[in-house]
Amino acid sequence: MQGIEFVRGEVSVTTHRDHDDLLSAGLGLAGLKGALAPFADAAHPTVEELRRRAIQTSWKGIADLGPLGGYGTVYGAVPDVPGREFEAFAMIPGAHAPHRVLVQVPDHFDQAHRCLVVTASSGSRGIYGAIALAGAWGLPRGCAVAYTDKGTGSGYFDFADDSGVALDGQRAKRGTAALEFEPVATKGEGIAVKHAHSGDNPEADWGRHVLQAARFGLAMLDRAFPEQAPFTAQNTKIIATGLSNGGGAVLQAAGIDDQHLLAGVVALEPNVHVPGHGRALYDYASEAALWLPCALVDQRFASAPFARDAHGAQHAAWVTRCASLHAQGLLKSSTLDAQANEAYEHLRSTGWTDQAMATAASSTALDLWRVIGVAYASAYLRRGADDMPCGYRYQALIDGKPGVADEATRASWWADASGIPPGNGIGLFGGTDNGADPQLVGINCLRRLWTGDDADARALHVSVRALAVHLPRKDLPLWVMQGADDGLLPTAFTSEPYVAWLREEGRRPLYWKVPHAQHFDAFLALPGFGDRHLPLLPYGYAALDRLWMHLYQGAPWPEQVPVPQGRARGAGALERAALALP
Protein backbone atom coordinates (compact mmCIF):
# COMPACT_ATOMS: atom_id res chain seq x y z
CA MET A 1 0.00 0.00 0.00
CA GLN A 2 1.22 3.47 -0.86
CA GLY A 3 2.51 5.76 1.87
CA ILE A 4 0.31 8.10 3.88
CA GLU A 5 3.04 9.66 5.95
CA PHE A 6 0.86 12.71 6.57
CA VAL A 7 -1.61 10.68 8.69
CA ARG A 8 -1.28 11.18 12.44
CA GLY A 9 -2.32 8.21 14.54
CA GLU A 10 -4.50 5.29 13.57
CA VAL A 11 -6.88 4.95 10.64
CA SER A 12 -10.38 4.09 11.83
CA VAL A 13 -12.26 1.55 9.68
CA THR A 14 -16.01 1.10 10.16
CA THR A 15 -18.63 -0.89 8.27
CA HIS A 16 -21.99 0.60 7.36
CA ARG A 17 -24.64 -1.85 6.22
CA ASP A 18 -28.07 -3.06 7.35
CA HIS A 19 -29.90 0.21 8.06
CA ASP A 20 -26.68 2.20 8.52
CA ASP A 21 -25.40 3.08 5.06
CA LEU A 22 -22.84 5.56 3.73
CA LEU A 23 -25.13 8.17 2.20
CA SER A 24 -27.81 8.69 4.85
CA ALA A 25 -26.77 6.55 7.85
CA GLY A 26 -29.90 4.51 7.26
CA LEU A 27 -32.27 7.47 7.41
CA GLY A 28 -33.14 7.53 3.72
CA LEU A 29 -34.56 10.65 2.14
CA ALA A 30 -37.65 10.70 4.38
CA GLY A 31 -35.49 10.45 7.48
CA LEU A 32 -33.10 13.14 6.33
CA LYS A 33 -36.07 15.46 5.85
CA GLY A 34 -37.50 14.72 9.29
CA ALA A 35 -36.63 15.89 12.78
CA LEU A 36 -33.05 15.53 13.93
CA ALA A 37 -32.20 11.94 14.79
CA PRO A 38 -32.40 11.67 18.59
CA PHE A 39 -29.78 10.64 21.11
CA ALA A 40 -30.92 8.00 23.59
CA ASP A 41 -28.74 9.66 26.24
CA ALA A 42 -28.25 13.32 25.30
CA ALA A 43 -25.18 13.70 27.47
CA HIS A 44 -23.52 10.55 26.16
CA PRO A 45 -24.51 9.89 22.53
CA THR A 46 -23.03 6.82 20.92
CA VAL A 47 -20.60 6.97 18.03
CA GLU A 48 -23.34 5.67 15.73
CA GLU A 49 -25.81 8.32 16.90
CA LEU A 50 -23.28 11.12 16.41
CA ARG A 51 -22.44 9.98 12.89
CA ARG A 52 -26.11 9.69 11.94
CA ARG A 53 -26.85 13.17 13.23
CA ALA A 54 -23.74 14.67 11.60
CA ILE A 55 -24.77 13.27 8.22
CA GLN A 56 -28.35 14.47 8.63
CA THR A 57 -27.27 17.95 9.74
CA SER A 58 -24.91 18.22 6.77
CA TRP A 59 -27.68 17.28 4.35
CA LYS A 60 -30.07 19.80 5.91
CA GLY A 61 -27.44 22.53 5.79
CA ILE A 62 -26.76 22.15 2.07
CA ALA A 63 -29.75 20.72 0.19
CA ASP A 64 -33.32 21.96 -0.15
CA LEU A 65 -35.22 19.08 1.46
CA GLY A 66 -38.43 21.06 1.81
CA PRO A 67 -41.77 19.76 0.53
CA LEU A 68 -41.68 22.03 -2.54
CA GLY A 69 -37.99 21.66 -3.34
CA GLY A 70 -38.14 18.59 -5.56
CA TYR A 71 -35.20 16.72 -4.07
CA GLY A 72 -35.69 13.03 -4.81
CA THR A 73 -38.48 13.63 -7.32
CA VAL A 74 -37.28 16.30 -9.76
CA TYR A 75 -33.56 15.74 -9.21
CA GLY A 76 -31.26 13.86 -6.86
CA ALA A 77 -31.80 10.66 -4.91
CA VAL A 78 -30.79 9.06 -1.63
CA PRO A 79 -30.47 5.31 -2.25
CA ASP A 80 -29.12 2.86 0.29
CA VAL A 81 -25.34 2.60 -0.26
CA PRO A 82 -23.65 0.02 1.98
CA GLY A 83 -19.90 0.15 2.41
CA ARG A 84 -16.96 1.08 4.63
CA GLU A 85 -15.52 4.30 5.99
CA PHE A 86 -11.82 4.98 6.56
CA GLU A 87 -11.08 8.03 8.72
CA ALA A 88 -7.99 9.69 10.15
CA PHE A 89 -6.34 12.94 11.13
CA ALA A 90 -3.87 14.31 8.57
CA MET A 91 -1.30 17.08 8.86
CA ILE A 92 -0.03 19.70 6.45
CA PRO A 93 3.72 20.26 7.02
CA GLY A 94 4.18 23.08 9.50
CA ALA A 95 0.54 23.16 10.64
CA HIS A 96 -0.50 23.27 14.29
CA ALA A 97 -3.83 21.47 13.87
CA PRO A 98 -4.82 18.45 11.78
CA HIS A 99 -7.50 18.26 9.17
CA ARG A 100 -9.88 15.34 9.25
CA VAL A 101 -9.96 13.04 6.20
CA LEU A 102 -12.57 10.39 5.49
CA VAL A 103 -13.06 7.99 2.60
CA GLN A 104 -16.36 6.25 1.88
CA VAL A 105 -15.94 3.08 -0.18
CA PRO A 106 -19.20 1.56 -1.44
CA ASP A 107 -19.53 -2.21 -1.57
CA HIS A 108 -20.49 -1.86 -5.21
CA PHE A 109 -17.35 0.12 -6.09
CA ASP A 110 -17.16 0.11 -9.90
CA GLN A 111 -13.99 -1.83 -10.68
CA ALA A 112 -14.49 -1.28 -14.41
CA HIS A 113 -14.62 2.52 -14.03
CA ARG A 114 -12.32 3.17 -11.11
CA CYS A 115 -13.44 6.52 -9.72
CA LEU A 116 -12.52 8.59 -6.66
CA VAL A 117 -14.42 11.80 -5.94
CA VAL A 118 -12.51 14.18 -3.68
CA THR A 119 -14.22 17.07 -1.94
CA ALA A 120 -13.93 19.60 0.87
CA SER A 121 -16.61 20.76 3.26
CA SER A 122 -18.65 23.83 2.47
CA GLY A 123 -18.44 26.78 4.82
CA SER A 124 -16.58 25.73 7.94
CA ARG A 125 -18.56 22.52 8.34
CA GLY A 126 -17.39 19.19 9.64
CA ILE A 127 -16.24 16.20 7.64
CA TYR A 128 -19.61 15.36 6.05
CA GLY A 129 -20.11 18.94 4.90
CA ALA A 130 -20.17 18.08 1.17
CA ILE A 131 -22.08 14.80 1.29
CA ALA A 132 -25.14 16.25 -0.46
CA LEU A 133 -22.99 17.09 -3.48
CA ALA A 134 -20.04 14.70 -3.69
CA GLY A 135 -21.56 11.77 -1.83
CA ALA A 136 -24.98 12.01 -3.43
CA TRP A 137 -23.48 12.07 -6.91
CA GLY A 138 -20.52 9.73 -6.47
CA LEU A 139 -21.59 6.92 -4.15
CA PRO A 140 -24.62 5.66 -6.14
CA ARG A 141 -22.44 5.67 -9.25
CA GLY A 142 -19.94 3.31 -7.62
CA CYS A 143 -17.27 5.91 -6.90
CA ALA A 144 -15.39 6.12 -3.63
CA VAL A 145 -15.60 9.57 -2.05
CA ALA A 146 -12.77 11.24 -0.11
CA TYR A 147 -13.63 14.16 2.17
CA THR A 148 -11.60 16.73 4.07
CA ASP A 149 -12.83 19.28 6.58
CA LYS A 150 -9.95 21.47 5.25
CA GLY A 151 -8.80 22.59 8.66
CA THR A 152 -12.23 23.79 9.81
CA GLY A 153 -15.00 21.67 11.33
CA SER A 154 -16.99 21.42 14.54
CA GLY A 155 -14.43 19.80 16.84
CA TYR A 156 -14.83 22.63 19.33
CA PHE A 157 -12.57 22.76 22.38
CA ASP A 158 -14.11 23.87 25.70
CA PHE A 159 -11.67 25.31 28.21
CA ALA A 160 -14.26 24.87 30.98
CA ASP A 161 -13.61 21.13 31.14
CA ASP A 162 -10.49 20.94 28.94
CA SER A 163 -12.25 18.76 26.37
CA GLY A 164 -12.34 18.46 22.61
CA VAL A 165 -13.46 15.91 20.03
CA ALA A 166 -11.81 12.57 19.34
CA LEU A 167 -11.67 10.85 15.95
CA ASP A 168 -14.97 9.05 16.59
CA GLY A 169 -16.82 12.31 17.30
CA GLN A 170 -17.15 11.84 21.04
CA ARG A 171 -15.89 14.30 23.64
CA ALA A 172 -12.53 13.56 25.23
CA LYS A 173 -10.29 15.36 27.71
CA ARG A 174 -7.01 16.82 26.50
CA GLY A 175 -4.28 14.20 26.94
CA THR A 176 -6.61 11.19 26.89
CA ALA A 177 -7.01 10.90 23.11
CA ALA A 178 -5.90 12.49 19.86
CA LEU A 179 -8.22 15.44 19.33
CA GLU A 180 -9.52 17.06 16.17
CA PHE A 181 -8.41 20.36 17.65
CA GLU A 182 -6.75 21.43 20.85
CA PRO A 183 -5.43 24.95 21.34
CA VAL A 184 -1.75 25.58 21.89
CA ALA A 185 -2.71 27.45 25.07
CA THR A 186 -3.14 25.08 28.01
CA LYS A 187 -5.40 27.47 29.90
CA GLY A 188 -8.10 29.85 28.74
CA GLU A 189 -11.75 30.74 28.83
CA GLY A 190 -14.65 30.09 26.55
CA ILE A 191 -14.77 28.01 23.37
CA ALA A 192 -11.98 27.57 20.82
CA VAL A 193 -12.76 26.55 17.23
CA LYS A 194 -10.29 25.19 14.73
CA HIS A 195 -10.99 27.56 11.84
CA ALA A 196 -10.56 30.69 13.93
CA HIS A 197 -8.01 29.60 16.53
CA SER A 198 -5.65 26.98 15.10
CA GLY A 199 -2.93 29.54 14.35
CA ASP A 200 -2.61 28.12 10.84
CA ASN A 201 -4.59 30.39 8.49
CA PRO A 202 -6.11 27.12 7.18
CA GLU A 203 -7.68 28.77 4.14
CA ALA A 204 -4.23 29.22 2.60
CA ASP A 205 -3.80 25.42 2.70
CA TRP A 206 -7.20 24.31 1.44
CA GLY A 207 -5.72 23.07 -1.82
CA ARG A 208 -3.14 20.99 0.05
CA HIS A 209 -5.89 19.55 2.23
CA VAL A 210 -7.78 18.43 -0.88
CA LEU A 211 -4.72 16.83 -2.47
CA GLN A 212 -3.89 14.99 0.76
CA ALA A 213 -7.47 13.72 0.89
CA ALA A 214 -7.08 12.44 -2.68
CA ARG A 215 -3.88 10.59 -1.78
CA PHE A 216 -5.55 9.20 1.34
CA GLY A 217 -8.42 8.03 -0.85
CA LEU A 218 -6.11 6.10 -3.16
CA ALA A 219 -4.36 4.50 -0.19
CA MET A 220 -7.65 3.44 1.38
CA LEU A 221 -8.78 1.91 -1.91
CA ASP A 222 -5.58 -0.15 -1.74
CA ARG A 223 -6.70 -1.33 1.70
CA ALA A 224 -10.28 -1.96 0.63
CA PHE A 225 -9.36 -3.93 -2.50
CA PRO A 226 -5.81 -5.25 -2.08
CA GLU A 227 -6.25 -7.65 -4.98
CA GLN A 228 -6.84 -4.65 -7.27
CA ALA A 229 -4.00 -2.50 -5.90
CA PRO A 230 -2.29 -0.24 -6.56
CA PHE A 231 -4.83 2.50 -7.11
CA THR A 232 -3.14 5.48 -8.76
CA ALA A 233 -4.12 8.63 -10.60
CA GLN A 234 -3.17 6.79 -13.79
CA ASN A 235 -5.69 3.97 -13.34
CA THR A 236 -8.29 5.70 -11.17
CA LYS A 237 -9.96 8.94 -12.24
CA ILE A 238 -9.99 11.52 -9.44
CA ILE A 239 -12.84 14.03 -9.79
CA ALA A 240 -12.71 17.08 -7.51
CA THR A 241 -15.90 18.89 -6.60
CA GLY A 242 -17.07 21.22 -3.88
CA LEU A 243 -19.32 24.15 -3.15
CA SER A 244 -18.79 27.51 -1.48
CA ASN A 245 -15.57 27.26 0.54
CA GLY A 246 -15.31 23.69 -0.72
CA GLY A 247 -15.53 25.00 -4.28
CA GLY A 248 -12.70 27.39 -3.55
CA ALA A 249 -10.69 24.53 -2.04
CA VAL A 250 -10.89 22.34 -5.15
CA LEU A 251 -9.87 25.30 -7.33
CA GLN A 252 -6.91 25.89 -5.03
CA ALA A 253 -6.04 22.21 -5.40
CA ALA A 254 -6.26 22.43 -9.19
CA GLY A 255 -3.72 25.24 -9.19
CA ILE A 256 -1.07 23.32 -7.22
CA ASP A 257 -1.68 19.82 -8.60
CA ASP A 258 1.83 19.35 -9.97
CA GLN A 259 1.49 15.55 -9.82
CA HIS A 260 -1.60 15.60 -12.07
CA LEU A 261 -3.76 13.79 -9.54
CA LEU A 262 -6.98 15.46 -10.65
CA ALA A 263 -8.79 14.33 -13.80
CA GLY A 264 -11.43 17.06 -13.68
CA VAL A 265 -12.94 19.73 -11.44
CA VAL A 266 -16.49 20.97 -10.91
CA ALA A 267 -16.69 23.94 -8.52
CA LEU A 268 -20.00 25.40 -7.35
CA GLU A 269 -20.26 28.97 -6.01
CA PRO A 270 -16.55 29.01 -5.10
CA ASN A 271 -14.93 31.30 -2.57
CA VAL A 272 -11.98 31.99 -4.86
CA HIS A 273 -9.55 34.91 -4.86
CA VAL A 274 -7.28 36.15 -7.64
CA PRO A 275 -5.32 39.25 -6.54
CA GLY A 276 -6.11 42.14 -8.85
CA HIS A 277 -9.25 40.37 -10.09
CA GLY A 278 -12.46 40.68 -8.13
CA ARG A 279 -12.41 41.15 -4.37
CA ALA A 280 -11.36 39.09 -1.36
CA LEU A 281 -14.09 37.71 0.88
CA TYR A 282 -12.90 39.66 3.92
CA ASP A 283 -13.08 42.91 1.96
CA TYR A 284 -16.67 42.63 0.80
CA ALA A 285 -17.93 40.83 3.92
CA SER A 286 -16.63 43.58 6.23
CA GLU A 287 -18.03 46.19 3.85
CA ALA A 288 -21.41 44.42 3.82
CA ALA A 289 -21.52 44.27 7.62
CA LEU A 290 -21.13 48.04 7.75
CA TRP A 291 -23.15 49.26 4.77
CA LEU A 292 -25.78 46.71 3.77
CA PRO A 293 -28.16 47.24 6.71
CA CYS A 294 -28.68 50.84 5.64
CA ALA A 295 -28.75 50.15 1.89
CA LEU A 296 -31.46 47.53 2.37
CA VAL A 297 -33.74 50.12 3.97
CA ASP A 298 -34.16 51.52 0.45
CA GLN A 299 -37.64 50.97 -0.95
CA ARG A 300 -36.33 49.08 -3.97
CA PHE A 301 -35.71 46.16 -1.58
CA ALA A 302 -39.03 46.35 0.25
CA SER A 303 -40.26 43.04 -1.18
CA ALA A 304 -36.97 41.12 -0.83
CA PRO A 305 -37.21 38.23 1.65
CA PHE A 306 -35.83 39.18 5.09
CA ALA A 307 -35.51 42.87 4.11
CA ARG A 308 -38.45 43.80 6.35
CA ASP A 309 -39.52 42.52 9.76
CA ALA A 310 -42.40 40.14 10.43
CA HIS A 311 -44.83 43.06 10.29
CA GLY A 312 -43.52 44.43 7.00
CA ALA A 313 -41.73 47.35 8.63
CA GLN A 314 -38.13 48.41 8.19
CA HIS A 315 -35.76 46.77 10.67
CA ALA A 316 -35.19 49.27 13.45
CA ALA A 317 -31.51 48.35 13.75
CA TRP A 318 -31.01 48.95 10.04
CA VAL A 319 -32.62 52.38 10.27
CA THR A 320 -30.27 53.14 13.15
CA ARG A 321 -27.31 52.09 11.01
CA CYS A 322 -28.20 54.79 8.49
CA ALA A 323 -28.09 57.35 11.30
CA SER A 324 -24.76 55.94 12.48
CA LEU A 325 -23.17 56.20 9.05
CA HIS A 326 -24.43 59.76 8.80
CA ALA A 327 -23.00 60.60 12.24
CA GLN A 328 -19.63 59.19 11.16
CA GLY A 329 -19.66 61.41 8.08
CA LEU A 330 -19.93 58.46 5.70
CA LEU A 331 -23.37 59.58 4.52
CA LYS A 332 -24.12 63.21 3.71
CA SER A 333 -27.91 63.04 3.55
CA SER A 334 -30.07 63.93 6.52
CA THR A 335 -33.29 62.03 5.68
CA LEU A 336 -33.68 58.25 5.97
CA ASP A 337 -34.74 57.65 2.38
CA ALA A 338 -31.83 59.66 1.04
CA GLN A 339 -29.38 57.96 3.41
CA ALA A 340 -30.55 54.50 2.30
CA ASN A 341 -30.21 55.50 -1.34
CA GLU A 342 -26.75 56.92 -0.69
CA ALA A 343 -25.65 53.69 0.99
CA TYR A 344 -27.09 51.73 -1.93
CA GLU A 345 -25.18 53.87 -4.44
CA HIS A 346 -21.99 53.39 -2.44
CA LEU A 347 -22.31 49.62 -2.70
CA ARG A 348 -23.16 49.85 -6.38
CA SER A 349 -19.94 51.81 -6.88
CA THR A 350 -17.89 49.01 -5.28
CA GLY A 351 -19.37 46.30 -7.48
CA TRP A 352 -22.52 45.09 -5.74
CA THR A 353 -25.45 44.37 -8.03
CA ASP A 354 -29.11 44.79 -7.17
CA GLN A 355 -29.55 41.00 -7.38
CA ALA A 356 -26.74 40.35 -4.91
CA MET A 357 -27.96 42.99 -2.47
CA ALA A 358 -31.55 41.76 -2.55
CA THR A 359 -30.54 38.19 -1.80
CA ALA A 360 -28.01 39.39 0.77
CA ALA A 361 -30.89 40.65 2.90
CA SER A 362 -31.02 37.11 4.29
CA SER A 363 -27.34 37.09 5.25
CA THR A 364 -27.74 40.57 6.74
CA ALA A 365 -30.80 39.67 8.80
CA LEU A 366 -29.02 36.56 10.09
CA ASP A 367 -25.92 38.63 11.04
CA LEU A 368 -23.69 36.44 8.86
CA TRP A 369 -21.41 39.27 7.73
CA ARG A 370 -20.27 40.07 11.26
CA VAL A 371 -20.00 36.38 12.14
CA ILE A 372 -17.83 35.72 9.08
CA GLY A 373 -15.68 38.77 9.73
CA VAL A 374 -14.96 37.79 13.33
CA ALA A 375 -13.90 34.22 12.57
CA TYR A 376 -11.89 35.01 9.46
CA ALA A 377 -10.10 37.96 11.07
CA SER A 378 -9.08 35.71 13.95
CA ALA A 379 -7.82 33.07 11.50
CA TYR A 380 -5.93 35.56 9.34
CA LEU A 381 -4.27 37.14 12.40
CA ARG A 382 -3.60 33.68 13.90
CA ARG A 383 -5.24 34.60 17.18
CA GLY A 384 -6.29 32.34 20.03
CA ALA A 385 -9.63 32.16 21.81
CA ASP A 386 -8.48 34.68 24.44
CA ASP A 387 -7.03 37.14 21.94
CA MET A 388 -9.56 37.50 19.14
CA PRO A 389 -9.58 40.77 17.18
CA CYS A 390 -11.79 43.67 18.17
CA GLY A 391 -12.59 42.24 21.61
CA TYR A 392 -14.73 39.34 20.41
CA ARG A 393 -14.94 35.94 22.07
CA TYR A 394 -16.96 32.71 21.92
CA GLN A 395 -18.54 31.43 25.11
CA ALA A 396 -21.27 29.02 26.10
CA LEU A 397 -24.65 30.74 26.07
CA ILE A 398 -26.78 30.31 29.18
CA ASP A 399 -30.03 32.31 29.29
CA GLY A 400 -28.51 34.86 26.92
CA LYS A 401 -25.36 35.33 29.00
CA PRO A 402 -21.88 33.79 29.07
CA GLY A 403 -21.75 30.61 31.10
CA VAL A 404 -20.58 27.01 31.15
CA ALA A 405 -22.07 24.48 28.75
CA ASP A 406 -23.64 21.32 30.10
CA GLU A 407 -22.59 17.86 28.96
CA ALA A 408 -25.47 17.42 26.52
CA THR A 409 -24.71 20.69 24.76
CA ARG A 410 -21.02 19.84 24.44
CA ALA A 411 -21.78 16.33 23.21
CA SER A 412 -23.93 17.62 20.35
CA TRP A 413 -21.43 20.11 18.92
CA TRP A 414 -19.54 17.74 16.64
CA ALA A 415 -22.74 16.52 14.99
CA ASP A 416 -24.80 19.71 14.95
CA ALA A 417 -22.56 22.77 14.78
CA SER A 418 -21.64 24.62 11.59
CA GLY A 419 -17.97 25.26 12.40
CA ILE A 420 -18.35 28.96 13.21
CA PRO A 421 -20.36 30.16 16.25
CA PRO A 422 -22.80 31.46 17.27
CA GLY A 423 -25.28 28.62 17.48
CA ASN A 424 -25.71 25.28 19.26
CA GLY A 425 -25.47 26.85 22.68
CA ILE A 426 -22.46 29.07 21.91
CA GLY A 427 -22.70 32.85 21.73
CA LEU A 428 -20.58 35.52 20.08
CA PHE A 429 -19.74 38.13 22.69
CA GLY A 430 -17.76 41.38 22.71
CA GLY A 431 -17.30 43.97 20.01
CA THR A 432 -20.23 46.03 21.29
CA ASP A 433 -20.92 49.10 23.36
CA ASN A 434 -23.97 50.68 24.99
CA GLY A 435 -24.77 53.04 22.13
CA ALA A 436 -27.81 53.09 19.90
CA ASP A 437 -26.00 50.90 17.35
CA PRO A 438 -24.20 48.55 19.74
CA GLN A 439 -22.54 46.33 17.12
CA LEU A 440 -21.06 49.26 15.21
CA VAL A 441 -17.87 49.57 17.28
CA GLY A 442 -16.87 45.98 16.52
CA ILE A 443 -17.89 46.19 12.87
CA ASN A 444 -15.88 49.39 12.41
CA CYS A 445 -12.89 47.64 13.96
CA LEU A 446 -13.27 44.65 11.61
CA ARG A 447 -13.53 46.97 8.61
CA ARG A 448 -10.40 48.91 9.64
CA LEU A 449 -8.46 45.66 9.53
CA TRP A 450 -8.99 45.87 5.77
CA THR A 451 -8.88 49.62 5.16
CA GLY A 452 -6.31 50.59 7.79
CA ASP A 453 -2.51 50.51 7.81
CA ASP A 454 -1.58 49.49 11.34
CA ALA A 455 0.32 46.30 12.16
CA ASP A 456 -2.81 44.15 12.41
CA ALA A 457 -4.17 45.43 9.11
CA ARG A 458 -0.88 44.73 7.38
CA ALA A 459 -0.74 41.23 8.88
CA LEU A 460 -4.28 40.53 7.73
CA HIS A 461 -3.43 41.57 4.18
CA VAL A 462 -0.42 39.25 4.20
CA SER A 463 -2.70 36.36 5.14
CA VAL A 464 -5.22 37.25 2.44
CA ARG A 465 -2.48 37.39 -0.18
CA ALA A 466 -1.59 33.82 0.80
CA LEU A 467 -5.04 32.73 -0.41
CA ALA A 468 -4.25 33.52 -4.04
CA VAL A 469 -5.28 30.72 -6.37
CA HIS A 470 -2.83 29.48 -9.01
CA LEU A 471 -3.37 28.52 -12.62
CA PRO A 472 -4.47 24.94 -13.29
CA ARG A 473 -2.83 22.97 -16.05
CA LYS A 474 -4.11 23.69 -19.55
CA ASP A 475 -5.61 20.26 -20.25
CA LEU A 476 -7.60 20.00 -17.00
CA PRO A 477 -11.40 19.89 -17.58
CA LEU A 478 -12.76 22.58 -15.28
CA TRP A 479 -16.32 23.77 -14.78
CA VAL A 480 -17.35 26.66 -12.54
CA MET A 481 -20.94 27.55 -11.76
CA GLN A 482 -22.60 30.07 -9.55
CA GLY A 483 -26.07 31.45 -8.98
CA ALA A 484 -26.67 34.80 -10.64
CA ASP A 485 -28.48 35.85 -7.44
CA ASP A 486 -25.71 34.80 -5.05
CA GLY A 487 -25.74 37.33 -2.23
CA LEU A 488 -23.04 35.80 -0.04
CA LEU A 489 -20.25 35.33 -2.59
CA PRO A 490 -21.39 37.62 -5.40
CA THR A 491 -20.36 36.47 -8.86
CA ALA A 492 -18.84 39.88 -9.64
CA PHE A 493 -16.26 39.34 -6.89
CA THR A 494 -15.56 35.61 -7.21
CA SER A 495 -16.32 33.29 -10.12
CA GLU A 496 -16.56 35.88 -12.90
CA PRO A 497 -13.12 37.46 -12.34
CA TYR A 498 -11.62 34.00 -11.78
CA VAL A 499 -13.03 32.66 -15.05
CA ALA A 500 -11.98 35.82 -16.91
CA TRP A 501 -8.45 35.44 -15.52
CA LEU A 502 -8.29 31.80 -16.62
CA ARG A 503 -9.34 32.76 -20.14
CA GLU A 504 -6.80 35.58 -20.26
CA GLU A 505 -4.15 32.99 -19.37
CA GLY A 506 -5.14 30.60 -22.13
CA ARG A 507 -7.31 28.21 -20.11
CA ARG A 508 -10.75 27.11 -21.30
CA PRO A 509 -13.04 26.78 -18.28
CA LEU A 510 -16.74 26.19 -18.66
CA TYR A 511 -18.86 28.66 -16.74
CA TRP A 512 -22.52 28.68 -15.81
CA LYS A 513 -24.00 31.80 -14.21
CA VAL A 514 -27.31 30.20 -13.37
CA PRO A 515 -30.33 32.53 -13.43
CA HIS A 516 -32.45 32.55 -10.26
CA ALA A 517 -29.98 30.44 -8.26
CA GLN A 518 -28.38 31.85 -5.11
CA HIS A 519 -25.97 30.62 -2.44
CA PHE A 520 -27.97 28.57 0.03
CA ASP A 521 -30.11 25.80 -1.44
CA ALA A 522 -31.22 25.03 2.13
CA PHE A 523 -32.80 28.52 2.36
CA LEU A 524 -35.22 27.63 -0.44
CA ALA A 525 -37.42 25.85 2.09
CA LEU A 526 -38.04 29.16 3.89
CA PRO A 527 -41.35 30.92 3.21
CA GLY A 528 -41.13 33.58 0.52
CA PHE A 529 -37.60 32.61 -0.48
CA GLY A 530 -37.85 29.48 -2.60
CA ASP A 531 -40.49 30.90 -4.91
CA ARG A 532 -37.96 33.47 -6.18
CA HIS A 533 -35.09 31.07 -6.78
CA LEU A 534 -33.85 27.73 -8.09
CA PRO A 535 -31.55 25.18 -6.44
CA LEU A 536 -27.95 25.00 -7.67
CA LEU A 537 -27.30 21.33 -6.80
CA PRO A 538 -29.05 19.89 -9.88
CA TYR A 539 -26.76 21.93 -12.13
CA GLY A 540 -23.76 20.60 -10.22
CA TYR A 541 -24.96 17.03 -10.72
CA ALA A 542 -25.47 17.74 -14.44
CA ALA A 543 -21.93 19.08 -14.81
CA LEU A 544 -20.53 16.04 -13.01
CA ASP A 545 -22.54 13.79 -15.35
CA ARG A 546 -21.00 15.57 -18.34
CA LEU A 547 -17.51 15.20 -16.85
CA TRP A 548 -18.13 11.47 -16.31
CA MET A 549 -19.13 11.02 -19.93
CA HIS A 550 -15.96 12.80 -21.01
CA LEU A 551 -13.66 10.76 -18.77
CA TYR A 552 -15.21 7.32 -19.20
CA GLN A 553 -17.16 7.37 -22.44
CA GLY A 554 -14.89 9.54 -24.56
CA ALA A 555 -17.42 12.34 -25.04
CA PRO A 556 -15.61 15.50 -26.24
CA TRP A 557 -15.09 18.17 -23.61
CA PRO A 558 -17.07 21.12 -24.98
CA GLU A 559 -15.57 24.52 -25.70
CA GLN A 560 -18.66 26.04 -24.14
CA VAL A 561 -22.03 24.93 -22.83
CA PRO A 562 -25.15 27.11 -23.10
CA VAL A 563 -26.15 28.48 -19.71
CA PRO A 564 -29.50 27.01 -18.61
CA GLN A 565 -32.23 29.62 -18.76
CA GLY A 566 -34.57 28.36 -16.09
CA ARG A 567 -37.39 30.19 -14.41
CA ALA A 568 -37.96 30.86 -10.73
CA ARG A 569 -39.72 28.05 -8.92
CA GLY A 570 -42.80 30.06 -8.03
CA ALA A 571 -45.19 29.41 -5.18
CA GLY A 572 -45.77 25.77 -6.09
CA ALA A 573 -43.53 22.73 -6.11
CA LEU A 574 -40.43 22.69 -8.28
CA GLU A 575 -40.94 21.28 -11.76
CA ARG A 576 -38.13 19.87 -13.88
CA ALA A 577 -39.03 22.24 -16.70
CA ALA A 578 -38.18 25.19 -14.43
CA LEU A 579 -34.54 24.06 -14.30
CA ALA A 580 -34.19 24.04 -18.12
CA LEU A 581 -31.32 21.58 -17.82
CA PRO A 582 -29.61 20.91 -21.17
From TrEMBL:
SUPFAM superfamilies, A to Z: alpha/beta-Hydrolases (SSF53474)
Pfam families: 3HBOH
Keyword set, alphabetical order: Hydrolase
InterPro entries per record: AB_hydrolase_fold, OHBut_olig_hydro_put
Domain of life from the UniProt record: Bacteria
Name listed for the protein in its UniProt record: Hydrogenase
Organism whose genome encodes this protein: Dyella mobilis
